Amino acid sequence: MTYRPKAVTIDDRAVEHLVDFCRANALDKLFLVADTNTYEAQGRAVADALRSAGFDLKQLVFTNEEVIADAAHVFDVLIAAGGEPRTYVAVGSGTLTDITRFASHRSHSQFISVPTAPSVDGFASIGAPLIIHGVKISVYCQAPYAIFADINTLAHAPQTMIAAGFGDMLGKLTSIADWRLGRLLWNEPYDEAIAQRTLDAVQICVDNVDGIGQDEPQAISRLFDALLESGYCMLDFGESRPASGAEHHTSHYWEMKLLREGRPAILHGAKVGVATVMVAALYDQVRALSREEISDLLEAATWPARDAEVARIRAAYDELADGVIADHKAFLDITPEEVEALKRRILENWDAIQAIAAQVPPAATVAELLQRAGGPATAAELGFDDAERDLGFDSGHYLRNRFTVRKLVKVLGV
Ligand SMILES: [Zn+2]
Description:
21 helices, binds zinc ion
């Protein structure tokens, strides 16, 4: 059994539950971390309740416009915490929770999560995605000691953040399909029960899409439940594979590009949702290919030459290229025999590949679901031009040594 939060509630009494929990567990000294928005949404109520219940509470409220999970923000938290043992209380969405997750873990303290938006599936996770020297890296930390979510606060979160949470969930449609391709064609470790649990969680979100789009508290509560379940699936599997495929790689590429260029960040789930439409379109393409066509394509296909691939990576990743090239070694250094074996595997397993592709809804359906949830469905809506859109799609897959439909299409040369 993997480490899970000791208590999780999603109802309209989050602050009460938090106070009771702190009392029951003798957590006398606390340290609240929030930003201006989340302090207004829930932080002030949490602080007032804890202080009037007699707890020793310190707090840090970030007042800068853009809170990023980077060294500067972590440093601010550690300075404000003052080096004494305190239980941290993160009042906020994903980024703020990740900063607190890391800072609390590295100061040997627990942290409690009071989420203010159902924007991402990482609340319960052990890892914190941090920006280190311009690269997003998931750093091993800890799951929250407890999570107390207030449905009304979640339902009053900005619509863009709610839609982002939905987009992050929808991304599991392609990440699970990619994971199944990885098992079939690249011998990646796989767990069918976890894959199915993840898909069940997505289905709950799809069934509630209109309520989610209209900020209905019950539907938002189901969305938050699903986001937690996706987080538990990652915890149980021990890495992010059940929740991250080509759509996440594309999103990570865009995120790093924005960061390098000093442009404002875009919500993780918004990028993932848009990328999911693009990856679903690749599955549309795969579904349209017959066994005869595949056989011809494989016959004609040449594995991309190493030098050309390296040049492509250098162009797409600038100063980060060396790290990406190192991570992508298994694909760059593939031998002609391995390429032939992979081609044979694709041909022999074409029916199974078709069955995997059949589980992904058409790209048009994915786009329509995102729109119903109130989120963006195209790269243009995110503010990317066509070249940036394509660069993310073409270069994101270099970020992880994992097999995805993006890799399959590259092998086929379509
Ligand atoms: Zn995600």
